[in-house]
Amino acid sequence: MGEAIASVAAQTHADLEHVIVEGKSPDGSLAAIERAAHDRMRVISERDDGIYDALNKGIRAATGDVVGFIHSDDFFAHQGVLARIASAFEDPTVEAVFSDLDYVAQADTSRVIRHWSTGPFHPKRLKYGWMPAHPTLYLRRSVYERLGGYDTSFGIAADYDFILRYFAQIDAEAVYIPEVLYKMRLGGVSNRNLAKIRQKMREDMSAIRRNNVGGIGTLVLKNTSKLGQFISRAKPRQSA
């Protein structure tokens, strides 16, 4: 929690609003938030109905033109991340910006376990399981006003459902930044155990069907495409 807040506070981009949504957790989260507080931050502390309800609260509370998320266990890759994203939004035709992401070890965040290189968007890629890493996706607030927020009937895959809902009908510019701007600690809810993995696959399939972007082949490709993210990119040996 503290590292996530500190990585926002350290951003060089001046025009920043940091809304923290805390669900009255008994684990001391609010105290940790207060210890890490900075002057560009405000806190909403109240009961919620899960992560997607909390994200919807954050969207409603935000007053800026662009909205993005950072989760309690994660952090920005460097101090210039938001400035890099903001520069892409200087073009008024741009509605979405996303980048690459590294999954890092819980205890040693310098150790990269998985590298998610998203690649640029093309409508045809949706049926092959393409999606940007959700935490790297920044959208104009008008997108949420137009499409609504996250569907809380999904327990795990509301982010994938929203991404499909948006990119299946996009008629604006989406900018891919081919850099790692976000670091996520490995160990999310969706891969916590076999039951969660099965739930995630069922919900992914529901999202694919309701947004008319494919079928079972899309689900298979979405999952198998992740395998390459675990392959280490070995550096070539230097010649003697």
Automatic annotation (TrEMBL):
Keywords recorded for this protein, A-Z: Transferase
Domain Glycosyltransferase 2-like as annotated: residue spans: 3-119
One Pfam entry name: Glycos_transf_2
Top-rank lineage group of the source organism: Bacteria
Record bears the keyword Transferase: yes
Gene Ontology molecular function terms on file: transferase activity
Gene3D superfamilies with a match to the protein in the record: Spore Coat Polysaccharide Biosynthesis Protein SpsA, Chain A
InterPro entries attached to this UniProt entry: Glyco_trans_2-like, Glycosyltransf_2, Nucleotide-diphossugar_trans
Name of protein: Glycosyltransferase
Organism: Roseinatronobacter thiooxidans
Origin organism lineage: Bacteria, Pseudomonadati, Pseudomonadota, Alphaproteobacteria, Rhodobacterales
